[in-house]
Write a structure and sequence with these properties.
The chain is of the alpha/beta class. It has 7 helices and 9 strands. The chain has a single domain, classed as Rossmann fold, CATH 3.40.50.
């Protein structure tokens, strides 16, 4: 599918909406009045679409983005990677708070287009790197931001291995997580806790607690 076709699909399937806990940021999001919201798992398989994580502002990412606004010094004038970026929410927050540069990365085929469209909505410039970074070299950045990385046990382990490697190479590593089962508190210090407004149809409640963690040696 071409970039134009992806843009058309995103524009037709979502709509620009403020992020619930960060209304200063607007993203193309699915909600109950957009076609993407109505697709079932069977529909996604039939249309050969991966689950559209890029179409939602997940609670861990919202918490991490809020922390960036509360503590802009963690990204200001620094080179930042938004790992498993989805919509690009966290990377957009970093760019709005003075990051020198922001690389967004995701494996989803639609994420690059969604990130570009969301960056345009918010007047920021982001660079996108496609593909799986976890087995490769850590990009030349100073800060790694990662929201909602603990959905599944194998993926969580792979993410944590990459993040630990980034820490050893001198990066600061920050993670936003809504207390999911596979996220280990060991090796991290909690820096903030937020009550995040979410949609109970995609999370499990209208308000979800989420924490921001800093990886420590």
């Amino acid at each position: 599918m071409s970039i134009t076709e992806k843009r058309d699909f995103i524009a037709a399937s979502t709509r620009p909406l403020p992020v619930p806990s960060l209304p200063q940021i607007t993203l193309y999001q699915a909600d109950e009045v957009t076609p993407l919201w109505l697709l079932t798992e069977a529909d996604l398989v039939r249309e050969r679409l991966a689950p559209p994580f890029w179409a939602f502002a997940w609670s861990g990412g919202q918490a991490l983005a809020r922390y960036v606004f509360d503590r802009p010094e963690i990204v200001s004038e620094r080179r930042v990677l938004d790992l498993a970026c989805g919509s690009g929410l966290v990377g957009i927050a970093a760019a709005l708070n003075g990051a020198q540069s922001v690389i967004c990365n995701d494996i989803d085929a639609y994420a690059e287009t969604a990130v570009a469209m969301n960056a345009g909505l918010n007047g920021v410039d982001l660079t996108f790197t496609a593909g799986n970074l976890l087995d490769g070299d850590v990009p030349e950045v100073e800060v790694v931001l990662a929201g909602d990385i603990a959905y599944e046990k194998p993926m969580t382990a792979a993410m944590l291995t990459f993040l630990r490697r980034a820490l050893v190479q001198g990066c600061e590593v920050w993670v936003g997580d809504p207390h999911r089962t596979y996220f280990p508190a060991e090796g991290f210090e909690r820096c903030a806790r937020y009550d995040i407004a979410t949609n109970p149809d995609i999370e499990d409640s209208a308000v979800k607690p989420a924490s921001v963690w800093r990886m420590i040696p």
